[in-house]
Structure to design on (138 residues):
């Protein structure tokens, strides 16, 4: 249940542009919270690493029910992609050296990542809602 809630929160951060475009009155509230998206990114990294440790369970899940296996796989992929997008600027700042000639490459890479961010955010909310429904039903 907690994982599903975190995925829904990740969707909010990933689809920030879409949400603000449709509801401009909440832009100020979102702008206060957006700097914290790296925290969600680190939580997603931990969840993704946990998924990798439980890879055997995913393979077993595929053999039992391919739909549940696909849902789990989609959640794992969205965790990885959203982790990378949410923490990209931290990685650039603390891991990579930002020289003047690489700043253009970093900016173009980030623009590419933002394009991928929204579809994986939508995948995250779908998986999160399915996870909540399954937790309630079972």
């Amino acid at each position: 249940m907690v994982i599903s809630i975190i995925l829904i929160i990740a969707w909010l951060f990933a689809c920030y542009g879409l949400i603000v475009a449709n509801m401009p009155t909440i832009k100020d509230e979102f702008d206060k919270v957006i700097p914290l998206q790296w925290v969600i990114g680190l939580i997603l990294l931990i969840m993704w690493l946990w998924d990798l440790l439980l890879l055997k369970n995913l393979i077993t899940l595929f053999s039992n029910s391919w739909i549940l296996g696909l849902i789990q796989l989609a959640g794992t992929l969205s965790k990885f992609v959203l982790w990378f997008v949410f923490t990209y600027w931290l990685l650039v700042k603390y891991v990579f050296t930002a020289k003047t000639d690489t700043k253009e490459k970093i900016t173009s890479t980030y623009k590419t990542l933002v394009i991928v961010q929204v579809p994986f955010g939508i995948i995250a909310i779908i998986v999160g809602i399915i996870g909540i429904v399954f937790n309630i039903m079972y």
Notes: The mean pLDDT is 82.
